[in-house]
Amino acid sequence: MKPVFMTYTKKDLINLAVCMILSVLIIPTFIKTEYWYTSILIPWLCLALATIGQQIVMGYTGQLALGAAGFMAAGAFAMFNLILRVPDLGFVGSLIVSGLIAAAFGILFGLPSLKVRGIYLMVATLASQFFIIWMIDKFGWFKNYDSSGIITAQDIVILGKPFTTPLAMYFVCLAVTTILTLLAMNMARGSTGRNWMAVRDMDIAAESMGVSLLRTKVQAFAISAFYCGVAGALFAFCYLKSLEPVAFDIKLSFKILFMCILGGLGTINGAFIGAAFILLFPVLLNAIGNNVFHGAIDATIISSIEQVIFGLLMIIFMIYEPLGMAKLWENIKQKWRTKLPSSTNLKSSLSKKT
Amino acid sequence: MAFERKFKIGKPILEVNNISLSFGGVKAITDTSFNVLEHEVRAIIGPNGAGKSSMLNCINGIYKPQQGTVSFRGQQISNITPNIMAQMGLSRTFQNLALFKRMSVLDNILVGRKLHTKTNFLEVALQLPKVKKEEKLNRERSEEIISFLEIEDIKDTPVGKLPYGLQKKVELGRALATDSTIILLDEPMAGMNVEEKRDMCRFILKVNDELGTTMVLIEHDMGVVMDISDRVVVLDYGKVIGDGTPDEVRSNQKVIDAYLGVEH
Hints:
A: mainly alpha, two-stranded antiparallel sheet, 14 helices, globular, B: alpha/beta, Rossmann fold, 2 domains, 4-stranded antiparallel sheet, 10 helices, 10 strands
């Protein structure tokens, strides 16, 4: 029988349908509190998108890069300036162009990856983080000569309709994230992703198969920065609703790095799991502090405990499950399946016995 | 040869002219020349440290020789890189296995189809019909290679989890997937048992016979080399000490001395 190639298996389509129903129908009907949208769901989607960007360059292409927040800042300020100066582009157009501007920075700061690797590359890519933030701070033009330091983001208007309520903004983030996630999955599963992974696993062999290291690495950096740029624009316009370079500091870059590693390097769904974990964990700790200990523990202590636990988790994951939570989830599913053999499993195990 | 070859041995396809390579003060290869004819199985043999792998790395562009040239189909190639050689139709395997460890067998072989993949990342992201068509063709070819190498049952396993012998097979598969005119095999049978070696020989000869692929291999097992190769070049201390058919090489006094040792 000739092999039949399909991009999506039935299981993927079911998963997608479940996610869509959950996020489009169930969440909006059951969650009414604004807090959930403004403080959890919207930043979750934005940061997951940035983490996908980090995944592409680090998880798939194996280039240790640290500076996602720099590209996010580039995207956010590009968006601000595009809406301000080129209003004809519209929101979606500006979003795409700001992604492209971030991608240009990605290409520029991805070039060192051709010469240095590992921890040295990480240091080299840190330059992007500091340079972009410095540039925005230094030249007033980027902030439209605003002296207060914090600029209010413009309202989101798509096709003449304003998207200002938390729910509407959630839908904007959801739509953008869904589309970009699907595109990332297509790339990761197709020939593009195979080239990335080949470069990650054995660059000299990849080159001998005709994979150009230059093109593949720079491409990965550009696509990664595009994702970060779009994520940064959404982060500023839907979550922060303001623009300030400080919001995109090195801490955010590290946060995205942690999301990437904890979620599972080289997985797309890991980006969502990792982002959810790192966002929800402090919320959970606070809830425990308030409800179990009734505020007896100081909030600053709780936030310190949070740091300690993150650090511990990073170490534990690095040692025991370097492929992160996505892999952990995969293992749990696997165990579940072997415990409860489905009819097809039963059939095959029976046929083996005879 | 007793049997009739579908692809008759032809003109020189690859020529190595006066290659010299040194690492600092260590001379790996000194003024070495030999050629490879189209459709033949050419072996490079020699004691340890004779410069065999360095030779392949020079042909493939991983090492840059200080002197000498490499010509492909009579055309001298300047600025050899692995990428350029791959595009010219030269593929290879590595001595210490250079597989993509975290990728499945099928994906490893699919990477070998890189040069037959013309669509760019944007088209892949959007899954345009031509991407699907191309991917289908590439997958079909890869599956063909997988069933040819008799590794269907492991095609979805990550390569890093496979035993050594199977990894060698996958590496051959990846080189085959490129549909190259020449394949360089760096010790394809090292560390294999007799049965695995026999299989590997069968695959090499079958590929050479059915597709006419020119094979250049480095091998230590003399029995295998004498059996499957059309011509053998013998290197010792980075120099050619013998070149000819297996029988000629076998009776060459210099070769015998290099292998058995000689009284001084």
